[in-house]
Amino acid sequence: MDRWIDLDGVANMRDLGGLPTTDGWIVQPRRLIRSDNLQHLSAGDVRHLVEDVGVTDVVDLRSHKELHLSGDGPLRSTPLRHHHHSFFPDPTPQEEAPEFLTARVRPDRPVLTPSYWSQHYRGYLTERPDSVSGALSVIATAEGATIVHCAAGKDRTGTVVGLALAVAGVPRAEIVADYVLTSQRLDRILARLKDQEPYKHSLAGRPMDEQVPQAESMDALLTVVEEEYGGAAGWLDAQGWTAAEIAALRVKLVRP
To answer: Which of 106, 114, 210, 234 could form a disulfide with 216 if both were Cys (CB 3.0 to 4.6 A apart)?
Structure first.
């Protein structure tokens, strides 16, 4: 199943529909969509997402600083429900953006290995569990399809989508394969971001290989969640979700 959604204004949008679960179900199309930045959608893109795909909710995982610099995107003019869940502790637009987004090239900057990324994703769960949980709650309760996005649609988005798919019962190998699929569009993603604030500072002079999603990164995150919480559902339980709420997320994703 070709899950890519090719629009004028995005480089990395795809529908998670079609992925199998361990108990014989599949993730239903037009329930969960992952994407990079939505700031450049055309009028035709907006119509397609609202009228054809059936999007009712948008989860924006970017920081307050990123939103402040980029402004409202075209979907803001629609009656969709918009939810902002920053993964960084930056409560006001006036504060400095996270170092991860703005750090300039310097000799002591660490090499961004798969281990670095997996630890970074784990940090989302430990430092901003409220935002991760909030994003997953939107997916569970949305009337129609939910778009989850950040800047590249790779790391923050990948973490939320990975947990959602794990709750739905998608095998780990399929979750990891979906995460890695972003590599097919990485050149287009970086071409969009390399001249934009605040991303141009962190991308300047850095090898593209550091940004390639490697299977080890997502696999390591899912291993940590399994070992520490018994799986994604266990992590949600630790955040105060009820069994009924966890079941609702799974039902939302897999039941026709």
So the answer is: 114
Distance CA 168, CA 35 (A): 19
DSSP track, 80-113: -EEEE--SS---STTSPPPHHHHPPP-TTPPP--
Q: Name the helix (H) or strand (E) containing 233.
A: helix 232-238
Give pLDDT tens digits for 104-121: 444 456 678 999 999 999
CA 119 to chain centre: 16
CA end-to-end span of the chain? 17
Phi, psi for residue 129 in degrees, rounded to 5: -60, -30
In a domain? residue 9? no
Would strands 32-35 and 81-84 be described as parallel, antiparallel, or unpaired?
unpaired
In whole angstroms, what is the distance from residue 52 CA to residue 56 CA? 11
Is position 2 within any domain? Answer: no
In a domain, 93, yes or no: no
For 209, the domain range is 14-88+109-250
**Is 3 within a domain?**
no
Give the chain's domain count.
1
> How many angstroms from the chain centroid is the CA of residue 28?
18
Q: Is the pTM of this model over 0.90?
A: yes
Compute the half-sphere exposure of residue 10: CA atoms within 13 Å on the CB side of its CA: 32
* CATH number, position 206: 3.90.190.10
CB atoms within 10 A of CB 232: 23
